[in-house]
Write a structure and sequence with these properties.
It is a single chain. This protein has two domains: 181 residues, 60s Ribosomal Protein L30, Chain: A (2-Layer Sandwich), CATH 3.30.1330; 58 residues, CofE-like domain (CofE-like fold, Alpha-Beta Complex), CATH 3.90.1660.10. It has seven helices and twelve strands. Strand 4 and strand 5 form a beta hairpin. It is globular and about 55 Å long.
Length: 293
């Protein structure tokens, strides 16, 4: 048996990696009974999460695209084909001027009384009510609202952390999908690459402690991967398997960005996403099928 040339083997590994195959791994097709549709399994190479810190505080009117590209230049990095940009809403909101001086808020008597009972800032409560279209729960000092976008979250997503010590509050982007699409188009113009964009925020979840990242704005990829009517390796037809890919990517990047690291953005590299005209609204469950409201 002729020995393999090490140089040929290394070149073959490089070629496989460039084509999206994982070196040393082979995709084994799922076996399904004859005549049955097989589940389209997707295998991934190692996925990279690349933090993108910002050197400067983002202010109203600033260009997020400029800040991103400047940060990558400082880190001797650049976007590559297939990358996904995940960015926290706060820098997007700041650039869009979605900042409110809390001293300009005159809370209602109702907001003041409720806030005093639980030692909260009545101005934030009043602002949260203004930014909501429905109050879902208000109990034990916790205000859960439905925002004008349709998100279910605490205080309509209003945040006073990482702003200026509590003097101002940051609102969610007026239209996160539009913001994501604008950033995607600007990056394509600057780099020549079609880079999907996900805008995130930290939300709590019913019956679970702690916060996690959610996708609130999406552009350039399909946020859901639908496996329904496909069959698993044992031939069972899936009935309810719809994977929230955009939320999963948001959560993954939250581990890299953190809360206090001044890292508002992250590049996801080598994830095989489905390109398409998706939006954050695709992730919202219609009230007609919501069993908890």
């Amino acid at each position: 048996m002729r020995k393999s040339d090490p140089r040929h083997t290394a070149a073959k590994r490089r070629k496989s990696a460039a084509q999206g195959a994982s070196p040393g791994k082979r995709q084994v097709p799922a076996q399904a009974p004859a005549g049955r549709k097989k589940l389209a399994l997707t295998t991934h190479d190692e996925v990279r999460l690349i933090p993108v810190p910002f050197e400067n505080e983002v202010r109203p009117g600033d260009s997020i695209t400029h800040e991103l590209l400047a940060s990558l230049t400082r880190g001797r990095l650049r976007f590559e084909a297939g990358d996904i940009l995940v960015i926290k809403h706060k820098v997007v909101s700041k650039a869009e001027g979605r900042i409110v001086d809390l001293n300009t808020i005159e809370p209602s008597a109702e907001s003041s009384a409720w806030a005093e009972q639980y030692k909260l800032d009545a101005r934030v409560i009043d602002l949260a009510l203004r930014e909501s279209r429905a109050v879902i729960r208000r109990k034990n000092g916790v205000l859960i609202t439905e925002t004008h976008h349709g998100f279910i979250c605490a205080n309509s997503g209003i945040d006073v952390s990482n702003v200026d010590g509590g003097r101002h509050a940051v609102l969610l982007p007026e239209d996160p999908d539009r913001s994501a699409d604008k950033l995607r188009r600007e990056l394509k113009k600057a780099t020549g690459l079609a880079i999907p964009v996900i805008i995130t925020d930290s939300f709590g979840r019913p019956w679970r402690e702690g916060l996690t990242e959610f996708a609130i704005g999406v552009a350039g990829l399909k946020p859901l991967r639908d496996y329904r009517d496909q069959r698993d390796p044992q031939g069972y037809k899936l009935k309810a398997s719809v994977e929230a890919v955009a939320d999963e990517l948001a959560c993954a990047t939250g581990l890299v960005c953190g809360k206090l690291n001044r890292v508002p953005a992250c590049i996801v590299r080598a994830f095989r996403y489905q390109a398409g005209a998706g939006s954050g609204r695709d992730l919202l469950r219609p009230p007609a099928t919501d069993l908890f409201r």
